[in-house]
Amino acid sequence: MSRLRVLVVDDEPLARQGVIARLARHADVDVVGECAAAAAAIEAVQRLAPDLMFLDVRLPGLDGFELLGELPGARRPHVVFVTAYERFALRAFDAQAVDYLLKPIDDERFDRALERVRAARRTLQLAAAATQAQTAAFPQRFSARVGRRVVGVHVADIDWIEAIGDYCGLHAIGRVHLVREPLQVLERQLDPAQFQRIHRSAIVRVARIAELRAATNRDAVARLADGTTLKVSRTYSDALRRALAS
């Protein structure tokens, strides 16, 4: 496993020094920064991309929970709260903190918190590796005919796919590319975590859906990020809602 990059956030210099001194006993840890206020911590997370943040609850300006609310999910590190107040523990775990340490810090308890972070990282890395392996099993591009030429259409560029007779129309980057495959055959070549059938004649990339509106007879209408509207048959609407919620 790669080294653990840590940011320490506490408005008390002695408290920061105590955390940093304890981290120094662990060979796989690099302290990449320390901050005394939430605004500086937000900037440091964006700039340094730490894996872990030791975070006090009480800070100048925003508190620790408000700080976390300002961080995009993809950029948010693991968090271990370090505070003198017991009453924030439930809120900390609701905020998906890995652990909650009370001041004064017990060395053994500190080491257990760090091991929990390592375990959480291993779980995420294994899940990411499994997802990557699954994605690699699906084609990354399709060959489409444009006049007398054959061009490659990257799957990552596809917004949605429609059945056009014996062909499929791949809607990608503002153009429609024809592939000589029935829709049901092409569907089996797509990652179901990314693409969902929404109609007997259409498949959509879930991430491109900006809005799903109810229509008559339990049908629905999906609006894509580029403004395209697509009918969602009631046969597929429940599965699509589950995919959007996941």
Summarize the structure.
The chain has 246 residues and is α/β, with parallel strands linked by helices. The chain has helices at 13-23, 38-48, 64-69, 89-94, 107-136, 183-187, 234-245, and strands at residues 4-9, 29-35, 52-55, 78-83, 99-102, 141-146, 149-154, 158-164, 167-172, 175-179, 195-199, 202-205, 209-214, 220-224, 229-232. It is elongated.
- Total number of strands: 15
Mean pLDDT across residues: 91
Give the strand line-up of the largest sheet.
2-1-3-4-5
Distance between the termini: 28 Å
Radius of gyration: 24 Å
Characterize the overall form.
Answer: elongated
Residue share in helix? 25-40%
* Strand percentage: 25-35%
Individual helix count: 7
The ordered H/E elements are: EHEHEHEHEHEEEEEHEEEEEH
Which regions have little confidence, pLDDT < 50, spanning 5+ residues? none
Summarize the biggest pleated sheet: 5 strands, parallel
